[in-house]
């Protein structure tokens, strides 16, 4: 059971009555071990602000007596490990006004590192996507489309694979709209046969007091049905009641 100040939901082994950073730290810890849940690590570490990352790392140390970055390194490998290590730094630039000359230059660097060459220089993508501010990245993505005649997401789909692709894709989606990213995560957790309960609970719990209203609006816009109705049709019993209480009335 996962408990917060306002609701109780199944899905996490520990009952938490503390702040969001502790909840996130518990989720990160639960995503590790046998059968590492890379998508959960991506969802948490690639979507948070610098401040949130530092708070999660501190909470992780207090709750588990462990270094989060070292644990991530031991659980992952290759370029995906490098991306998560970059995210653990919580060192994304925070300028709000983009440098357009830099955007053009780095759009060209991304193009040269991917679409323009045989093979892909993943480290270049990692450096830019993990360290530049969201406004700077928006400008870079716009310039990238002018240079390559492709959207950056399309290039990532073509050039990357596996968890690294998922991580880069998550960064791009959050740069454009964090609520839209989480709306997609919720939809994917419920579509088709069966329900990915861990993802469904984790997203609703972690965003309930952040941007759940905006996520509900994006969900309706993207999938032409309300989040409330989809949960109602995909879950049952006290579990459904708990989720619907958190989500609130239909949009």
TrEMBL record:
<dbReference type="GO" id="GO:0001786">
    <property type="term" value="F:phosphatidylserine binding"/>
</dbReference>
<dbReference type="GO" id="GO:0005737">
    <property type="term" value="C:cytoplasm"/>
</dbReference>
<dbReference type="InterPro" id="IPR018252">
    <property type="entry name" value="Annexin_repeat_CS"/>
</dbReference>
<dbReference type="GO" id="GO:0005634">
    <property type="term" value="C:nucleus"/>
</dbReference>
<keyword id="KW-0041">Annexin</keyword>
<dbReference type="InterPro" id="IPR018502">
    <property type="entry name" value="Annexin_repeat"/>
</dbReference>
<comment type="function">
    <text>Calcium/phospholipid-binding protein which promotes membrane fusion and is involved in exocytosis.</text>
</comment>
<comment type="similarity">
    <text>Belongs to the annexin family.</text>
</comment>
<protein>
    <recommendedName>
        <fullName>Annexin</fullName>
    </recommendedName>
</protein>
<keyword id="KW-0111">Calcium/phospholipid-binding</keyword>
<dbReference type="Pfam" id="PF00191">
    <property type="entry name" value="Annexin"/>
</dbReference>
<dbReference type="GO" id="GO:0012506">
    <property type="term" value="C:vesicle membrane"/>
</dbReference>
<dbReference type="GO" id="GO:0005509">
    <property type="term" value="F:calcium ion binding"/>
</dbReference>
<dbReference type="InterPro" id="IPR001464">
    <property type="entry name" value="Annexin"/>
</dbReference>
<keyword id="KW-0677">Repeat</keyword>
<keyword id="KW-0106">Calcium</keyword>
<dbReference type="InterPro" id="IPR037104">
    <property type="entry name" value="Annexin_sf"/>
</dbReference>
<dbReference type="GO" id="GO:0005886">
    <property type="term" value="C:plasma membrane"/>
</dbReference>
<dbReference type="GO" id="GO:0005544">
    <property type="term" value="F:calcium-dependent phospholipid binding"/>
</dbReference>
């Amino acid at each position: 059971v996962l408990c917060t100040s306002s609701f109780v939901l199944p899905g996490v082994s520990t009952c938490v009555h503390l702040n969001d950073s502790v909840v996130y730290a518990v989720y990160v810890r639960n995503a590790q071990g046998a059968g590492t849940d890379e998508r959960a690590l991506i969802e948490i570490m690639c979507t948070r602000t610098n401040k949130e990352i530092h708070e999660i790392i501190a909470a992780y140390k207090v709750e588990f007596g462990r270094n989060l970055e070292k644990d991530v390194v031991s659980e992952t490998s290759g370029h995906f490990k490098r991306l998560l290590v970059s995210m653990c730094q919580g060192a994304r630039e925070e300028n709000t006004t983009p440098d357009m000359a830099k955007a053009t230059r780095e759009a060209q660097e991304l193009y040269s590192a991917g679409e323009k060459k045989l093979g892909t220089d993943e480290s270049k993508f990692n450096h830019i996507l993990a360290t530049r501010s969201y406004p700077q990245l928006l400008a870079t993505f716009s310039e990238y489309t002018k240079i390559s005649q492709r959207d950056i997401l399309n290039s990532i789909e073509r050039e990357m694979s596996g968890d690294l692709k998922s991580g880069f894709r998550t960064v791009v989606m959050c740069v454009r709209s964090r609520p839209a990213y989480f709306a997609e995560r919720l939809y994917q957790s419920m579509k088709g046969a069966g329900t990915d309960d861990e993802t469904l609970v984790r997203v609703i719990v972690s965003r309930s007091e952040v941007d759940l209203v905006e996520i509900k609006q994006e969900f309706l816009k993207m999938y032409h049905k309300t989040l409330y109705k989809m949960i109602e049709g995909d879950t049952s019993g006290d579990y459904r009641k708990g989720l619907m209480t958190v989500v609130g009335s239909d949009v």
